[in-house]
Amino acid sequence: MAPPSLHETVKVVEKMVTRRVDLRSDTVTKPTESMRAAMASAEVDDDVLGYDPTALLLETEMAKIMGKEAALFVPSGTMGNLIAVLVHCEVRGSEVILGDTCHINIFENGGISTIGGVHSRQIKNNDDGTIDIDLIEAAIRDPRGELMFPTTTLICLENSHANSGGRCLSVEYTDRVGEVAKKHGLKLHIDGARIFNASVALGVPVDRLVEAADSVSVCLSKGIGAPVGSVIVGSKNFIAKAKRLRKTLGGGMRQIGILCAAALVALKENVGKLESDHKKTRLLADGLHEIKGLKINPGSVETNIIFIDIVDGSRTTTEKIIKYLEERGILLMRDKPSRLRVVLHHQISASDVQYTLSCFQQAVQIENGN
Ligand SMILES: Cc1ncc(COP(=O)(O)O)c(C=O)c1O
């Protein structure tokens, strides 16, 4: 076969350089053509006054999908969680039981305490994202000590659990936590930023998966690929209080139908793509597992997130791998000094997975010479 011409070589190099495989998060997706078209033609009105028809449509649809009475669009998952915790913990001195590695505890600026005055009781998260139920029960304050103790009011779970690598909480586990909550007169909130990923991976309808929860915060801008926003769902009474709090926090926005139109397309077109995202994630994880110098726990890959550890004694580092991949258009994040995190989404193709695998292989080989 004739060697490639200079022109062909330049084309290949250009393609390599311009190729972009963005694995930093599932929040990086770009709106699809159909989302952009829906946004351009969305019917809108002032949502603070309660008249935006597309927002009302999205909220009605989400309430139905999640099996709850009502729903409310909010600008972000962080605000959704904050509002939910604040609604459930309206009495000063309330305490929430949550996992020590959950998003609310680690990545939300401690908003539930700094803004909400809510005390948090952090219980160890297991590697699979659960919290032992006996530890939850043991953490519930004895009301007879109310002169001294904060008042346990709420339990929070996260499904899928991002810091555990996107692992899923089963419906049985969620129901059992719900029973504990009920028994003690507490509420249960689920941070369901990636609840559709969990539902698809578990093969459990999403409304069934969150049946035990009093409220759920669902991100539109993660796995399902809408550009902006989250929705919180719960009872009509919960949502009425949530609406006031959203306004207090500056989350009352006007013609949000533009954003909700894209979210409606995401619900229609992208939930069905999650299964394929999970398959590609599995393929990538299995391939990475084969590369000497890297360590994956294949059993922990259940949805669209992979943690990649650098094996002790390896000459490569997360910095070197990130730089090598970045030069080849592959973006990813470091989770810890010796751990990388990649997240797949619907804009990552099977060929992107193969390309990423071969670049990883080269990056590690160059340092370790194996
Ligand atoms: C599990 C989880 N909950 C909540 C959030 C917060 O969402 P947002 O970035 O929209 O505030 C994130 C964001 O990554 C998340 O991963």
TrEMBL record:
Name all Aromatic amino acid beta-eliminating lyase/threonine aldolase domain ranges. Answer: 22-309
Write the record's keywords in alphabetical order, separated by commas: Lyase, Pyridoxal phosphate
NCBIfam families in the record: GntG_guanitoxin
Q: List GO molecular-function terms, semicolon-separated.
A: L-allo-threonine aldolase activity
Q: Which cofactor does it need?
A: pyridoxal 5'-phosphate
Task: Name the protein family.
Answer: Belongs to the threonine aldolase family.
Pathway in which this enzyme or protein is active: Amino-acid degradation; L-threonine degradation via aldolase pathway; acetaldehyde and glycine from L-threonine: step 1/1
Class of this enzyme: lyase
User: At what positions is N6-(pyridoxal phosphate)lysine found?
Assistant: K222
Spell out the GO cellular component terms annotated for this protein, sorted alphabetically and separated by semicolons: cytosol
Entry's Gene3D superfamilies? Aspartate Aminotransferase, domain 1, Type I PLP-dependent aspartate aminotransferase-like (Major domain)
Per the UniProt entry, what is one GO biological process?
L-threonine catabolic process
Q: What is the lineage of its organism?
A: Eukaryota, Viridiplantae, Streptophyta, Embryophyta, Tracheophyta
- Has UniProt tagged this entry with the keyword DNA-binding? no
Presence of keyword Repressor: no
What is the E.C. number?
A: 4.1.2.48
Catalysed reaction(s) here are: L-allo-threonine = acetaldehyde + glycine; L-threonine = acetaldehyde + glycine
Descriptive protein name: low-specificity L-threonine aldolase
Biological role: Threonine aldolase involved in threonine degradation to glycine. May play a role in the removal of L-allo-threonine.
